[in-house]
TrEMBL record:
Belongs to the glycosyltransferase 26 family. TagA/TarA subfamily. InterPro entries: TagA_TarA (IPR034714), WecG_TagA_CpsF (IPR004629). It comes from the Bacteria. Transmembrane segments: none annotated. Pathway: Cell wall biogenesis; teichoic acid biosynthesis. Keywords: Cell wall biogenesis/degradation, Glycosyltransferase, Teichoic acid biosynthesis, Transferase. It comes from Lentibacillus halophilus. HAMAP family: TagA_TarA. Its EC number is 2.4.1.187. This is N-acetylglucosaminyldiphosphoundecaprenol N-acetyl-beta-D-mannosaminyltransferase. Catalyzes the conversion of GlcNAc-PP-undecaprenol into ManNAc-GlcNAc-PP-undecaprenol, the first committed lipid intermediate in the de novo synthesis of teichoic acid. It catalyses: UDP-N-acetyl-alpha-D-mannosamine + N-acetyl-alpha-D-glucosaminyl-di-trans,octa-cis-undecaprenyl diphosphate = N-acetyl-beta-D-mannosaminyl-(1->4)-N-acetyl-alpha-D-glucosaminyl di-trans,octa-cis-undecaprenyl diphosphate + UDP + H(+).
Length: 243
């Protein structure tokens, strides 16, 4: 099981892409469920105040550190998390390995038509990718969703319904599904389909994606102010614990 540490009562997995991918595909062979949730400072701050959200996040098998702030918080409290794992990049890493091992994937969520476009782009980039099925996220018949995923014989299900709705859906339904790997991926289908542009690679590499977003989308400043508040909260909690 994943090596984890706790930041403000929220579990965070200490994994890298290279350590996580083999674990996930080994668990597929063992027919074990792997529930993946991405955590960032904003989500951790909300979870500290919301017991239900905190319980949902901590119920996952892997809580990937999606945000430079999580790495900084780990360092501030003497932890060992050093690698950022973004949701969309992990999704693409899983898809590449699924192509290599001929595992089947299912895309569930987003607006009507987006999952289909994402499927087309994935198969254009790699004809060996086996997208066994797609379904948009505006279907009211949950039993129909479960049936479609099970009939597809998918090994991996990506759910794009926004957080925490996508994580709640996974937690509520994974016991009814034959798939093994479940990841909530937010707006990743839109990114793959070309509807949403990612920050330049150099900003992501330096952990400055938040700054790029603030420059191109200045109305997001209220969300970005969470980062310094989050780090200050981590420092104060550690000081209180040590006093």
């Amino acid at each position: 099981m994943a090596d984890k540490e706790t930041i403000l009562n929220v579990d965070v997995s200490n994994e890298t892409y290279d350590s996580l991918i083999p674990q996930l595909f080994h668990r597929i062979e063992e027919q074990q469920h792997s529930f993946i949730v991405a955590v960032n400072p904003e989500k951790i701050m909300k979870a500290e105040q919301n017991a239900d959200l905190r319980e949902l996040i901590n119920a996952a098998d892997y809580q990937i550190p999606d945000g430079i702030g999580v790495l900084l918080a780990s360092r501030l409290q003497g932890g060992r998390i050093t690698d950022r794992i973004t949701g969309v990049d992990l999704m693409m890493a899983i898809i590449r390995e699924a192509s290599r091992q001929q595992k089947r994937i299912f895309l569930y969520g987003a607006k009507p038509g987006v999952a289909e476009e994402a499927k087309a782009q994935l198969q254009k980039d790699d004809p060996n990718v086996h997208v066994a099925g797609v379904m948009h996220g505006y279907t009211d018949d949950n039993d129909a969703v479960i049936e479609a995923i099970n009939q597809s014989q998918a090994d991996i299900v990506f759910v794009a319904k926004g957080s925490p709705a996508q994580e709640q859906w996974i937690n509520d339904n994974k016991s009814r599904l034959h798939a093994s790997v479940f990841q909530g991926v937010g707006g990743s289908f839109d990114v793959i389909a070309g509807h949403t542009k990612r920050a330049p690679a150099w900003t992501r590499k330096l952990g400055l994606e938040w700054l790029y977003r603030l420059i191109v989308e200045p109305w997001r400043w209220k969300r970005q102010i969470v980062l310094p508040r989050f780090l200050l909260h981590v420092v104060r909690k550690r000081q209180k614990k040590e006093s």
